[in-house]
Amino acid sequence: MILKITKIVYLMFFVIFIAGCSSFNTFKQPQGKVIIDNKGYTMRIGDFEWNEGDFESRKISTSDKIDLAEKFETLEVKKGDRIKIEIEQSPSSIIINQENEDGTTDVIEINDNEITLPSEEGYYIYEIKAKWNEGKMTFVFDVNIE
Fold it and tell me: Where are the alpha helices (DSSP H) in the chain?
């Protein structure tokens, strides 16, 4: 009888321990895509901060935007092409910076989730800063315009 009670007590402690250690957090990190000709390309994620309920996360990227762009498959596009930007969970604001070959940076206007590429050939890196009430995130992609 004592052996049976001991087993039940151990089983109860085990169940309580497992229940206390498990996490039911449903957080899903927003992803960003660049859409060209109906084909999506997942952008690289740079810095990331999120605070939602009892969940808090922060990632400061050790890579700069040039390193992140190197990890992205450079898109071959044409002058003046339009690119659609899709970012999950509907950010409240989006700022897009375009780094030119000469190292200068321009803020790019986004309309209906689309940007128009430059009319000059060259290599460009785009850094997108998205914000939500719960946090913020930086995405990077690059293009080669022919």
Answer: 2-21, 65-71
Pairing between β-strand 44-52 and β-strand 135-145 as defined by DSSP bridges: antiparallel
What's the total number of domains in the chain?
1
Supply the DSSP symbol for 111: B
- Cα–Cα distance measured from residue 138 to residue 146, given in angstroms and rounded to the nearest whole number: 26
The answer to whether residue 16 is domain-embedded is no
Full domain range(s) for residue 57: 25-145
What was the pLDDT predicted at 15? Answer: 47
- CATH code of the domain in which 87 resides: 2.60.40
Summarize the chain as % helix, strand, coil (round to 5): 20, 45, 35
pTM: 0.80
